[in-house]
Amino acid sequence: MMYYGSGMGAGGWILMLLTVALLLTLLVVVVVRPLVSRDTVPPAVGGSVDDAEKVLADRLARGDITTDEYEQRLHVLRASRR
């Protein structure tokens, strides 16, 4: 009786590993990423100046910008309203 084997062989295991890695990547991109980055969506282009001022104030509160940078940018925003 000849033995032909019942396993997938090295090529089958590699293909299965790559398929699982691809599926996990798609799961992260499609499901997990939008859930995690829901609060970090940048404001829409062409939003109101009040929205821009709120974003600027939030950045100051988080410590992303200094008080001087905040005041300079706020001045520019308010000047663009006129």
Can you put this structure into words, describing what you see?
By secondary structure, the chain is mainly α. It folds into two domains: 31 residues; 37 residues, no CATH class. It is 70% helix and 0% strand. It is built from three helices and no strands. Helix 2 runs antiparallel to helix 3. The relative contact order is 0.07. The model has no long low-confidence stretch (mean pLDDT 81).
What structural keywords apply?
82 residues, mainly alpha, 3 helices, rod-shaped
- Write the H/E string, N to C: HHH
In terms of per-residue confidence, which ranges show pLDDT below 50 for 5 or more consecutive residues?
none
Binned strand content: under 5%
**Structure annotation, total helices:** 3
Mean pLDDT: 81
Please indicate the count of domains. Answer: 2
The gyration radius over C-alpha positions equals 26 Å
Helix and strand content put the structural class at mainly alpha
The helix content is: 55-70%
For the report, how would you describe the main beta sheet?
A: none
Envelope shape: rod-shaped
End-to-end Cα distance: 92 Å
Number of strands: 0
